[in-house]
Amino acid sequence: MLLNFDRLGWWKYALLGITLLTAAFLLMPIVFIAALSFGSSQWLIFPPPGWTLQWYGELFADPRWLESALTSLKIAVIVTVLSVLLGLVTSFGLVRGSFMFRDALKALFLTPMILPVVVLAVALYAFFLRIGLGGTLTGFVISHLVLALPFSILSISSALEGFDKSIEDAAVLCGASPLEAKIRVTLPAISHGLFSAAVFSFLTSWDEVVVAIFMSSPTLQTLPVKVWATLRQDLTPVVAAASTLLILLTIILMALVAVVRKVLKQ
Amino acid sequence: MSTYSDASGAIMPLPKARRATGFGGVVPALAFVAIFFIAPVAVLLLRSVLEPVPGFGNYAQLIGSATYLKIFANTFIVSGLVTVISLLIGFPVAWALAIMPGRLTSVIFAILLLSMWTNLLARTYAWMVLLQRTGLINKMLIGMGLIDKPLALVNNLTGVTIGMTYIMLPFIILPLYGVIKKIDPSTLQAAALCGANRWQCLTRVLLPLAMPGMAAGALMVFVMSLGYFVTPSLLGGTANMMLAELIAQFVQSLVNWGMGGAAALVLLVVTLSLYTVQLRFFGNQNPGGR
């Protein structure tokens, strides 16, 4: 009876109440930021005395915001491509291969997911200082790739594990070369895994703050680093505008994922 | 993957010794991870015992100082509080999600995922504004007559705890949902038939059955909280540092690689040992922490 909603009695309303309050609690900051970004009060008074697009104007008028957004985008795209390619090759090795320590190796590849990011950030910072990659695009790409790759390997391997290899073998028997069979049969069949890998990698890089704080230089910084640096000085509504754009991108990507999942299922 | 031609394997005799296949595929990633992950972390940890002089001086200093001990205490207290509160809120929510009928469930799931994927800085910024002295939360509390003077909710550990709980809730609700969803309703029917009242059903059947999921989720939230950097440093202020911020400060402002490495090793050892406990007892569940 505890697992039957209709037979819970008044407990039903308690559970429902907590759930709705929690949902409101989770949603509140997101809605709040979006509302503030259109509010006319510089002191972030809520509800705002009036509505304005001033903060978006300031955001777009400042070339440094635009520049950091472009830097973020560039890094995220490169990281996504590299992460999917490397994840694909690695997953084939991990899923299809048979060699010593295969499971240990897979666990090793996933470790960056559980390691405190600050440890990795500090370690890479020291390393890049020494070899001259600190504050460079390459440094950013490498450090973001360390964090994105595990998501890629996880998504693509699980898709590949779910794919019946005999279909690929059948293509080879029908005269396709092994590579051709992989490209024309296997890749389309695991495309949902490739797609998740790409989305996760992109968002990992796009949202990354901790490593990026250590990688950035005065001339090269990503959008989150710019937000971080601005936040340490004051709570200007321009940050609310920047945050709203970041949230918007997340919603678009989530909607895209939902649509693609639906299409791939059919 | 030159040895991969199993299609003809049915006709050909099996190779005498088992050969390693597919290793070539993992070589690039292995090289990448070795150079840009294992080596830098290893070097950082080595520096903790080599700099400024070889030995365990850095660790002695870390344990010997009241300032650093307070930071460790802060870190564990906040992580513990965040874990307990997330569990207390998360369990009923996961329970409701597991049994609630209809469209409302999918709306709440969408909210959970949205909040999980919304930029961490954006969410932390929201709390910085909401929790200010003149912020919405204080205004609401005064408006409801619960307090007469604004509370200090930010730049202290209260702020960190609120902000971190907010971030960790989805991470505990989602795994708990999975666990409760898998519980067979007939076990509870059986308990009810045997005369258990609702409260007994909850404390003696449902909670014990959900316990492995709760323990695994709690451990994960605790470990993730220990290593968090962004939210504690923005909501906590300089007087209430946590471990991740201490590491960053050793390296960035003090340029003390020995102490930075030592503090990193402490965080790493605690994190990895708790994950080992989790893997050992509860199996694998693995979103990462910022």
Automatic annotation (TrEMBL), chain A:
Transmembrane segments annotated in the record for this chain: 12-38, 75-95, 107-128, 140-160, 194-215, 235-260
Record domain ABC transmembrane type-1: where: 69-257
Any Pfam family matching the protein: BPD_transp_1
UniProt keyword list: Cell inner membrane, Cell membrane, Membrane, Transmembrane, Transmembrane helix, Transport
Membrane topology: Multi-pass membrane protein
GO cellular component terms listed in the entry, alphabetical order: plasma membrane
GO process annotations (BP): transmembrane transport
CDD domains: TM_PBP2 (cd06261)
Electron transport keyword on record: no
Protein family according to the UniProt entry: Belongs to the binding-protein-dependent transport system permease family.
Protein name: ABC transporter permease subunit
